[in-house]
Amino acid sequence: MSSRMIMRGMIGFYILLFFGYLFGPLVVMSITAFNTPSYPAAYPFEAFTLDWFVKLWNHRNMMDGLKNSIIIGIGVVAISVPVGLAASIIMSQIYHRARSLYYLITISPLLTPGVIIGISTVIFWRDVLSVTDVTRSMFYNGMVLTVLGQASFISAYCLLIFMARLTRFDRAQEEAALDLGASYPQVFWHILLPFLKPAVVSAIVIAFLTSFENYNTTTFAILADKTLVTVLAGEVRQGTTPALSALAVIIIAISVVGAVLYEVVKRREQMQAERAQRQAILAERGEVAAVA
Amino acid sequence: MSSRAIVFIIPVIVIAIFWLMARREARRNPDPTRKSFFERNGKALGIVFIALVAFWTLFLVALPYLYMVVESFHPALPPTKRGGPDDVLTVAQYSSFVINPIGDQVNWLHMKALVFSILVSMAVTFLNFCICYPLAFYMAQAGTAQKVRLLMLGLIVPYWVNEILRAFSLRLLLASKGLINQALMGIGITDAPIDFLGNNTGLYVGLSYAYLLVMMFPLYNAIESLDKNQIEAARDLGAPWWRIHWDVVIPYAKPGIASGCTMVFMLSVGSLAAPQFLGGPRVLWFTAIIYDFFFQSFNWPRGAAYAFIMLVVCIALVMGMLRLFKVSLGEAIK
After folding, report:
1. Where is the signal peptide (chain A) (predicted)?
2. How far is B181 from chain A (nearest CA, A)?
3. Contact present, B223 and B140 (Cβ < 8 Å)
4. Percent of all residues in chain A with a pLDDT value above 70, rounded to a whole number
5. pLDDT by residue (tens digit) across A171-205?
6. Staple A216 to which of A114, B76, B243, B284, CB 3.0 to 4.6 Å?
């Protein structure tokens, strides 16, 4: 019994250390956002201030970068989610001998370092878009290249999300619809797509967030433009200011709220499912009783 | 431009070969119940699916990679001379990795940087495995559902703070005026601040910190599907705890371990933020050298060549490791 308690204590201590490692730096950084010294310091805590948030708001480059990041994120979602969906459907129907090559090609962007994706995107599209002057002047810019570069690996994430959901799809539903006279496109729009809806939602969220925080690919593909992350990188390289900590506080706050909301929604769904199940059992019993 | 145009022909040939193979097979074993792709999805949807996937796999994945490789076999020329008579195929970019063209000496610096990046990444991979394994095991096998959900939430939140800000937060801790040095000097362990960033401690910690969760989730997924009865059985048969892990859990979770390790290793070798913001002034990270070829000396072909060298060496290493531990590539990248 006592050895068990020691084991428990050790596990608790280890979990504490682990989360200390994970959160410690973030907590310290958050404290510096509210402290007055212009060099970000957590200790000694001189006085509480919100100035760094104001400075952040007035930081032109960062606000421009933020705007670009959001536009790029929307562009990436618009490409990656449909591509991932189409790719997952083709994955389930493709000529069997071509499947392993197809799988390798679609998964390879996930194993390729982001730096290489960025470089190849720039080198390739520079020449392709330079074929005519019109395409060069219209499309050869950092925003377009970043969307293309990020979409190349984010589509693969979306593909994996859709594939995971598709494996749980009950083919009987499709057959039932076909027997009732539905056409294949109708099956897609009325059966498959509604079934995939949760995967579509998570693909959109993950695609946007991955795009938003990407650095390695973006730093090459962005050329002369900027995103929030590349502006941040420039700031960190030049020196340190508590305004960066303030930004981190905002991001952490948003993700905490998002995570808690997600948890609440999930728990409510679970409770509803349980209630529905209970009612179904009760209803069944009632029917059985009525028949008897 | 002709050598570059070849790139566009390769996918056409590959697709044609597979298409002909499919046609031949269909003619040999006719299967009347089998529907063609367009019958199966409708014409409009079928075309949309194929167009989307073709755009992605060709123009965003295969062609840029092939194009980068071809570009690396060209000399670095100003834009006006590209495609001209000077634009010949050459291995100069690759030989410059071995022999530095400036001074004609063996290019120890860049070779050392590659070896250093790889060794550090391997160490980081191993370290992260050691850090993550106990918690992954606890969450997957020992913890109650509610506790696991809470722990998961705690894992996901820091994951969405971007790489740069996480590096920044570590820099605040490890800087010479940072909290750790303040604490060490306050207790009296050292008199002068320790230069954690200068001696590369920052780099190692930064890499480990950045990719901790990339290791955690595959490990958790792999261990979670292990039947608890197997552990019970081993325990009932009198196995000590370390044998349970060594002989039951780890062999079972091998594909997950392989996929976590592969991802951490590849991300770490290719990382740019940690060496840029947490490395010492003299640290030579291989991706940072590539970065400089692009942004400082504007030698894109050489940067492409170095990127290709890095990719080939890393893939060879990963494949070698997977073979050593008898995991198939398919299992590892599932």
Report:
1. none
2. 11
3. yes
4. 97
5. 888 889 888 988 888 888 998 999 999 889 889 98
6. A114
Q: What is the predicted pLDDT for the residue at A44? A: 75
- Which residue from B minimizes the CA distance to A246? B165
What CATH architecture applies to the domain B106-332? Orthogonal Bundle (1.10)
Window A:132-171, CB contacts with B under 8 Å: 148-149, 151-152, 155
Per-residue b or e along A266-279, where b marks 16 or more CB atoms closer than 10 Å to that residue's CB: eeeeeeeeeeeeee
Domain ranges within chain A, ordered by starting residue? 60-240
In the structure, what pLDDT confidence band is assigned to residue B127 with cuts at 50, 70 and 90?
very high
Q: Does A213 touch chain B (CB under 8 A)?
A: yes
Q: CA-to-CA distance for B155 and B216, rounded, in angstroms?
A: 9
| pLDDT bracket for residue B334 (50, 70, 90) | low
Contact B270 A114 (CB under 8 A): yes
Q: Establish if A250 touches chain B: CB-CB under 8 angstroms.
A: no
- Token reading at B142: 């020992």
**pLDDT given for residue A175 in this prediction:** 87
**Partners of residue B99 on adjacent β-strands:** B106
Q: What is the pLDDT of residue A4?
A: 75
CB contact A13 to B (< 8 Å):
no
Strand bridging mode B105-106 / B99-100:
antiparallel
Give chain B's mean pLDDT. 87
Q: Are B173 and A25 an interchain contact pair (Cβ–Cβ within 8 Å)?
A: yes
**3-class secondary-structure state, position A207:** helix
Per-residue b or e along A73-94, where b marks 16 or more CB atoms closer than 10 Å to that residue's CB: bebbbebbbbbbbbbbbbbeeb
Put simply, the answer to whether A152 touches B64 (Cβ < 8 Å) is yes
With a threshold of 0.95, tell me whether the complex ipTM lies above it.
Answer: no
pLDDT for res A78: 96
A-chain CB neighbours of B14 within 8 Å are 101
Of A87, A109, A213, which is closest to B163 when you measure between CB atoms?
Answer: A213
Average pLDDT over residues B119-146: 90
Instruction: Give chain A's mean pLDDT.
Output: 87
User: Do residue B67 and residue A127 have CB atoms under 8 angstroms apart?
Assistant: yes
Q: Where are the domains of chain B?
A: 2-102, 106-332
Bridge partner residues of B299 (DSSP): none
Residue A93: which of B40, B151, B167 has the nearest Cβ? B40
* Beta-carbon separation of A116 and B270 below 8 A: yes
Neighboring chain A residues of B58 at a CB cutoff of 8 Å: none
Bridge partner residues of B105 (DSSP):
B100
- CA dist A39 and A45 (Å) reads 12
* pLDDT for the residue A97: 83
Most confident of the following: A121-125, A284-288, B35-39: A121-125
For A17, nearest residue in chain B (alpha carbons): B131
CATH superfamily, region A60-240: MetI-like (1.10.3720.10)
Q: Which of A28, A86, A251 sits opposite B173 (nearest CB)?
A: A28
Which residues on adjacent β-strands are paired with residue B106? Answer: B99
Confidence band (pLDDT; 50, 70, 90) for B330?
low
Average the pLDDT over B73-84 and give the result: 82
